[in-house]
Amino acid sequence: MTDTIGRRARSMAEMGEIMGRMGAPDDAPLSIAGFRPRPTDVIITPFGKCGTTWLQQTFHTLRTRGDMDFQDISQVVPWIETSRMLGVDLEAPQRGEPRGFKSHLSYDAVPKGAKYVVALREPKDAMVSMFRFMEGWFLEPGAVSLGEFAAGRMVGGGSDYWNHLVSWWAQRDNPSVLMFSYEQMVADPEGSVRRLAGFCGIPLDDELLALTLEHSSIDFMLAHKDRFDDLLMRQVSEEKAGLPPGSDSAKVRKGGVGGHKAEMPPEVAAALDARWAQTVAPATGFADYAALEAALRAR
C-alpha cells in the first residue's frame, strides 16, 4: 500500500497508479479473448465519452420496451473489457433480445462476429467530457488542469481516440457496422432511434418510438442519473483502488455540442488539432472533425 490510498489523484501519474490497482494487467485481454459473440449480438463500442451510455440506454429501452429495473446500465448491457475485473458473466441470460454489450475497443481489437454500433464525437468535446467525468472520482478537483489531462490522455501518442476513430471509419461501408456522430444524435434523435432499431432488427411502433425518445432524453437520464453513474466500476475503485467513498462518477451531465469552446484553452485545442493532422487526416482525407462529420451525415 502507498500513502495515496484513501485519496484521489493529484497528478496524471498518480491517477495512472491508482487506476492500475483496480485489476490485474491481464484482466481486459482475457475478457476480450474469452468472449465469443453471436451474429445477432449488438456491441456498442464508441470511444469513451462519445455517446456510449446514451446508446446503451436507447438500445436497452428498444429491446425491453422501457425496462429501468437496474442499478447500473452496464448490469444489463455489460462491458466486455471489464467483465473479469467486475466478475460479470458475459454469457449470463439478458433481459431482452438481441443481446447487447458495451465496449470502447477499436475495430482491430473488438471480438469479431457481431453487429457493431459506433458513435464518433468532436475530440475537443470528448476531452472536456472525459476530464469532468474523472474530476471528483479519480482526480482531486482542481489538482490537475485540463491542459495537463489532455496532454496525458489525448495529445500524447498513447491515446486510443485517434486510432479508434480511424479503425472504425475504415469500416463505414461494412454492413455489420452502424455509425453515428454524437452531433447527429443530438440533432435528430428520432432518426437515430429509427436507424438503431432497424439495424438491431427490433420492430418499432409509434408507442415504442415515443417511449424510447423519452427514456433516452437528457432530461430523463438526468432524472435517473443514479442508473448511469458507473456503479460497478465505482465500487471496484473504492474497494480495490482505495478511492474515497461517494465519488461523483455520473456519466450524464449536460450533453450538447460545442461545450469545449467555453472551457478549453486555445493551446490545448491547438494540440488536439495537431494530433488530428498527424494521425487522422492522412488516413481519412479530412482536415478536421467537422469535415469528417459532415461527410458522415451525407451518407
TrEMBL record:
Domain Sulfotransferase, first and last residues per copy: 39-278
Positions of the UniProt region annotated as Disordered: 239-260
Protein name per UniProt: Sulfotransferase domain-containing protein
Similarity comment: Belongs to the sulfotransferase 1 family.
Keywords: Transferase
Entries under InterPro entries matching the protein: P-loop_NTPase (IPR027417), Sulfotransferase_dom (IPR000863)
Native source organism of the sequence: Caulobacter ginsengisoli
Pfam family, one: Sulfotransfer_1
